[in-house]
Amino acid sequence: MIPRLLTLPFGRKSFFLFGPRQVGKSTMVKVALAEKKYVDINLLKSETLLKYKASPDLLRREIEFQLKRRESLIVFIDEIQKAPALLDEIHYLLEEFKNRLFFILTGSSARKLKRSSVNMLAGRAWEFFLFPLTHLELGSLFSLEEILLKGSLPPIVNEDFTDCFRTLRAYTNTYLKEEILDEALVRNIPAFSKFLIIAADQSGEVVSYANIARETGVSGKTVQGYYQILEDTLIALKLEPYLKSARKRLIRHPKYFLFDLGVINSICGRTSLEAIKTPSIYGRLFEHFVILETFRILSYWEMNCRFYHWRSSHGAEVDLVVEKDSELWAIEIKSNPVVHSRDLRGLQSFVADYPSVRALCVTTAEQPYLAGNIEVVPWRMLFRKFRGHHT
Prior knowledge:
Layout: E1 14-18, H1 25-32, E2 39-42, H2 46-54, H3 57-67, E3 73-78, H4 86-96, E4 101-107, H5 111-114, E5 125-129, H6 135-138, H7 144-150, H8 161-181, H9 189-201, H10 209-216, H11 220-232, E6 236-241, E7 255-258, H12 261-268, H13 279-300, E8 305-311, E9 317-324, E10 327-333, H14 345-353, E11 358-363, E12 369-371, E13 374-378, H15 379-390
Parallel strand pairs: 1-4, 1-5, 2-3, 3-4, 6-8, 10-11, 11-13
Antiparallel strand pairs: 6-7, 8-9, 9-10, 12-13
Helix pairs in contact: 3-4, 7-12, 8-12, 9-12, 10-11, 13-15
């Protein structure tokens, strides 16, 4: 069992735990509750789902019965988005049995809950998110090359390349079936499947909805809806453009980063280390890795950050802009360990607009150095710098 960075308030507060499939939500909960008595309700079981969909009030009656015999109770409901009507019953129970009843509600999609205006318990339950494994969690198991190829979903950590890509192909097919088809999120499954391939291939690039619409044969508005589905089902991270400068004409389209490098490579047919070693592909995957890792770790540390990209119409670009409280960080990501001042013109342009910004270039170098006036640091040092400023 790999210890996770996320700390959850078991037995202190009810909470939602969201995350894509197979990131370890259920495992984390069950390990934490191993020594406790709790009610386990798995809505992936069809008979359980049908029972509660037919009679949501049955949950209330079952819990009331249990609480006649116990001082307190923990209830774990897996895949809560499959039966959102249960949230009204949970709301009532939390009001009725304050400090005696705690719900743990996990789900692989927040879409059905947040988009359908269902009861999100109005502060009675906190929200947390779990992601694929980080380098801090993997510890000695971490290998940058392997992560850039295989990603870091828990089921593939100890699998060889052949088995891991079998698992990743199955993952994509399960996502299309259970998140998209079964939940009827789109009508045109072939178009969405084609879109998913394009979204993986162009993950991390500035999005042109019109260009993708031409390739998939649907409207630009439909493509926007498809990206919204990826975001809502926690398969993609959206970076809006940072638009707070009046001095330059800035690109206003977002970037989307699919949530796991192994899933991206599997969809794109890159299944060997040789397939990712060309400089352009390796560079893109390394940029992906640093951005996803930053998002995950700062989320676990509850630093309350906002993440952006920045690009001017003249091509000046910064890979990642982070707003953290009153601080602004601009981060350029280079897979080459040797970086010169001339390679950092986008970062220098951003610094000219925002003189108080904390500007860094993150690389695969082993030691930090200066490129002109820009600090160049090994990628692991980035997280120590964020942590240092946090403390």
